[in-house]
Design goal:
It is a single chain. This protein is α/β, with parallel strands linked by helices and 330 residues long. It contains eleven helices and 13 strands. The chain has a seven-stranded parallel beta sheet, sandwiched between helices.
């Protein structure tokens, strides 16, 4: 697909992945509308980190994904819609499951219905590897059973199935991308890598962390953004779910050790029970089988965890004032 002058809407554009996708698409020449959650401060979220030349090329609209009319106004005349808007913090979903239903399920329904009415060329819906739960086999392919081990993952499964139903029932050209654990600059401290690095860079004498045993497949955000674009570009992804990940599993302990090496610091480790999920909710192993992405859209990751960690650390060093290393962010 030639992105030059293509009209695209990105929901959740002010978020971590969304802001990087905005950046990549604008650089490719797309006419980007960035849908950002309304707030009285006109806070653009992570879009404030974009180069001014890119920032001046995009159209930012404030709205609420839970409001159908707000969504409907924004999807008109769009060639491609990337739906990323969601509540994503797993620990908070234990406390506020209703808000996850309203945002992740109702919000997705609004995007799908509005896109159907507008005759949108293609909708790329965002899933998550959390829908698989603890792996029954690894690496995990798209046929792995879905297992809701948190209210968050339950709402994402429901949203995925809504997208699937709109393809089968109404012929909506929707494709679902299922990224594994994305990391990179601009990510909030609720995620494990920024949690570790902010504590190390701030000079704390001990580092507080949850379980060190879970295994994750860490995908650099530039690879994730490219995955979104290639899913949109391929006709073979319509009506399909496509995993994007590295295929390499790393324990949280190994991530911690890499961060120690990168920063040259090795403080005491304090295992914090408040950061550990309920026993039956913890997802122990997530490792991606990315063969489908490689075969149908010629996508594969370019960055390793080790190579990309320094970019995250550099971002945090410059923006440490944004983080609260002493606080557990849920």
């Amino acid at each position: 697909m030639n992105w030059n002058s293509k009209k695209v809407l990105i929901t959740g554009a002010g978020g971590f992945i969304g802001s990087h996708l905005v950046e990549e698409l604008a650089t490719a020449g797309a006419r980007v509308t960035a849908f950002v959650h309304y707030n009285s401060r006109s806070d653009e979220g992570n879009l404030k980190f974009l180069d001014s030349r890119i920032r001046n090329e995009i159209n930012i609209v404030f709205g609420d994904i839970r409001d159908f009319f707000s969504v409907k106004r924004s999807v008109k005349s769009m060639d491609v819609i990337f739906h990323l808007a969601a509540l994503i913090g797993i620990p908070y979903s234990y406390s506020a499951p209703q808000s996850y239903m309203d945002t992740n399920i109702q919000g997705t329904l609004n995007v799908l219905q509005a896109s159907l009415e507008a005759g949108t060329g293609k909708v790329v819906h965002t899933s998550t590897s959390e829908v698989y739960g603890t792996a029954r086999y690894v690496p995990i392919d798209e046929n792995h059973p879905l297992n809701a081990q948190s209210p968050y993952s339950a709402t994402k499964i429901a949203a995925d199935k809504l997208a699937e139903s709109f393809y089968h029932s109404f012929g909506l050209p929707v494709a679902t991308i299922r990224p594994f654990n994305t990391f990179g600059p601009r990510q909030s401290a609720r995620a494990v890598i920024p949690t570790i690095l902010t504590q190390l860079i701030s000079g704390t004498k001990e580092i507080r962390i949850g379980s060190l045993a879970p295994v994750r497949d860490f995908l650099y955000v530039k690879d994730t953004a490219r995955g979104f674009m290639t899913v949109a570009e391929s006709d073979k992804t319509i009506g399909e779910v496509t995993n994007v990940g590295t295929g390499i599993g790393v324990t949280i302990k190994e991530v911690l050790e890499e961060c120690f090496h990168l920063t040259g610091r090795m403080p005491d480790i304090l295992l914090d029970d408040s950061r550990i999920r309920p026993e039956n909710s913890e997802v122990l192993k997530l490792v991606c089988n990315n063969n489908k992405a490689k075969n149908i859209m010629q996508w594969e990751p370019k960055y390793s965890l080790k190579d990309a960690l320094s970019e995250v650390a550099d971002f945090i060093k410059v923006n440490l004032h944004m983080y609260k290393p002493e606080t557990y962010n849920i």
